[in-house]
UniProtKB/TrEMBL annotation:
This is Metal ion (Mn2+/Fe2+) transporter (Nramp) family metal ion transporter. The chain crosses the membrane at residues 41-65, 77-110, 122-140, 152-172, 192-211, 232-254, 274-302, 323-339, 345-364, 385-405. InterPro entries: NRAMP_fam (IPR001046). Its main location: membrane. It comes from Portibacter lacus. It is found in: Membrane. Keywords: Membrane, Symport, Transmembrane, Transmembrane helix, Transport.
Length: 406
C-alpha cells in the first residue's frame, strides 16, 4: 500500500492533468462525436493524445532546465503584450468552461434523479449547484497541494472505472473502431466544431501552461527527467483510453440507433432505454466525478495563471485568490439559473481554447531553440520538425473551430 502511495505521488502532476483534461467538456464532445459519427473521429483524438505526450515533456523539461514557468517566461522574453493575450484567452476559456461544466453536471443529475422525486422533476438545479460548488470551495479552502492531489486521485479513479466499465457493456465492433482510424476530411461545419472541441479539450494550451506550474511545484530537477517522461506517458495514455471509452459508449448505443446528443440530459434520456438504469447510473457517477475533477483545477487556474504572469508566489490563502476561486464557483450558477445548452457551451469553450494553442506553441518553439535559455538542452532538428508539425496541426484545428463557431 505504501509503494502504491509513493507511485501515485510520483505521477501526481500527470493525474492532475487527467483530472483537469477529462471533464464534462471531454465527455460532451466525445459523446457527441460518438453519437453523430460513430468512431470516425477517433484518429484526431489519438493524434492529439500522442502530440500531448510530447508537448507535456517539452513544457515540463523547459521548467526543469530553466526553473521558470511559462507565462512568466513569455513576459520575460516576448514582452507583456503576448503574455497578456495568452493569459486573457486562457482565463476567458476557463471561466466559460466553469459555466458549461456545472451546467452539464446539474442537468445530468436532475434528469437521472427524476424517478427518485415525488414531483418527477428531479433534484433542484440550484440546490445541486450549491452542493457541488460548496464541495469544490471546501476542497480549495484546505489550501494544501498534497490534499488537492489525493482528492483528484479519488475522482480520477472513480471516473476511469465508470467509463471503462460502461464501454465494455456496449463496445462497438472492432471493425467500426479500425474504420475510425482511416484519415478523412470533415464533411460539414458541425463536424469541424466537434473536431476542434475534441482536440481543444485534449490539446488545449492551458494544459501545457499548467504542466509547467505543476513541475515547478514538484521541484523536479535534471535528474528527474525520466520520471517526468514516465509521468507524461501515463497522463497522455490514460487521456486517450478514457476519451476512447466515452466515444465508444456513445457509438455503441446512440450512433447505431441514429440518435444524437444536443443537450446534457440527452445522455441520460437516450442511454437509459439502451443500457438500462444500472449502466446509466454508473455513467452518471462517472460524469459527476469527471465534472468535479475538472472543476477543481479550473477554479484554481485563475490565481495560478495570474501568479505565473506576475512571477509571484502561488499563495492560495490570499484574499485575491479566494475571491477569484469564489468567482469561478459562482459562475457555475449561470446555466442552472438562466438556462442554456451546456453541451454547446462546453464545445464552444473547448474550440475557443484550441484557438490560442498555436500561439502558445510557437512562442515555446522559439524559447527551446535559444541557446542562452536552454543551454545543452536546446531543441535538436527532430524535436523542431515534430513541433512544427504539431503547430500546423493545431492551426488547422483552430481554423476548423472558428468556422464551426461562426
Amino acid at each position: 500500500m505504501k509503494k502504491l502511495g509513493l507511485f501515485l505521488a510520483s505521477i501526481s502532476p500527470g493525474l492532475f492533468l487527467i483530472g483537469y483534461n477529462i471533464g464534462t467538456g471531454s465527455i460532451t464532445t466525445m459523446a457527441s462525436a460518438g453519437a453523430s459519427y460513430g468512431m470516425e473521429l477517433i484518429l484526431p483524438v489519438l493524434l492529439s493524445c500522442i502530440f500531448t505526450y510530447f508537448l507535456i515533456i517539452i513544457f515540463g523539461q523547459y521548467t526543469i532546465v530553466t526553473g521558470d514557468t511559462i507565462l512568466h517566461s513569455y513576459r520575460k522574453y516576448f514582452g507583456t503584450g503576448f503574455s497578456a493575450i495568452v493569459l486573457v484567452s486562457l482565463l476567458i476559456s476557463e471561466w466559460v468552461a466553469c459555466m458549461g461544466v456545472m451546467g452539464v453536471i446539474v442537468q445530468v443529475v436532475q434528469e437521472w434523479s427524476k424517478p427518485l422525486t415525488s414531483s418527477g422533476e428531479g433534484f433542484s438545479p440550484i440546490l445541486v449547484t450549491a452542493i457541488f460548488g460548496g464541495i469544490i470551495y471546501w476542497i480549495f479552502w484546505q489550501g494544501k497541494h498534497r490534499f488537492f492531489e489525493r482528492v483528484l486521485v479519488v475522482f480520477v479513479a472513480i471516473m476511469g472505472f465508470c467509463f471503462i466499465a460502461t464501454m465494455f457493456m456496449v463496445a462497438p465492433s472492432a471493425e467500426t473502431i479500425l474504420d475510425g482510424l482511416v484519415p478523412r476530411i470533415p464533411r460539414d461545419k458541425s463536424e469541424m466544431l466537434l473536431l476542434a472541441g475534441m482536440v481543444g479539450t485534449t490539446m488545449g494550451g492551458v494544459l501545457y501552461v499548467v504542466r509547467s506550474i505543476l513541475v515547478q511545484e514538484k521541484k523536479w530537477s535534471i535528474k528527474d527527467m525520466k520520471l517526468e517522461n514516465r509521468d507524461a506517458a501515463i497522463s497522455a495514455g490514460l487521456m486517450f483510453i478514457l476519451s476512447f471509452a466515452i466515444m465508444a459508449a456513445a457509438a455503441g448505443t446512440l450512433h447505431v440507433n441514429n440518435l444524437r446528443i444536443d443537450n446534457a440530459i440527452d445522455m441520460v434520456n437516450l442511454l437509459e432505454p439502451l443500457m438500462g438504469r444500472f449502466s446509466v447510473t454508473i455513467f452518471v457517477v462517472g460524469i459527476v466525478c469527471a465534472g468535479l475533477s475538472s472543476l477543481f483545477p479550473i477554479v484554481l487556474l485563475a490565481p495560478w495563471l495570474i501568479s505565473d504572469f506576475r512571477n509571484t508566489k502561488r499563495d492560495l490563502t490570499t484574499t485575491s485568490s479566494k475571491l477569484l476561486v469564489l468567482f469561478g464557483v459562482l459562475l457555475g450558477f449561470v446555466v442552472p439559473i438562466f438556462g442554456g445548452r451546456p453541451v454547446f457551451v462546453m464545445i464552444v469553450s473547448q474550440a475557443a481554447a484550441s484557438i490560442v494553442t498555436p500561439l502558445i506553441l510557437i512562442l515555446m518553439m522559439i524559447l527551446v531553440n535559444k541557446k542562452a535559455v536552454m543551454g545543452d538542452y536546446t531543441a535538436k532538428l527532430p524535436r523542431n520538425i515534430l513541433l512544427a508539425f504539431i503547430i500546423l496541426f493545431t492551426i488547422a484545428i483552430a481554423i476548423s473551430g472558428i468556422l464551426g463557431i461562426f
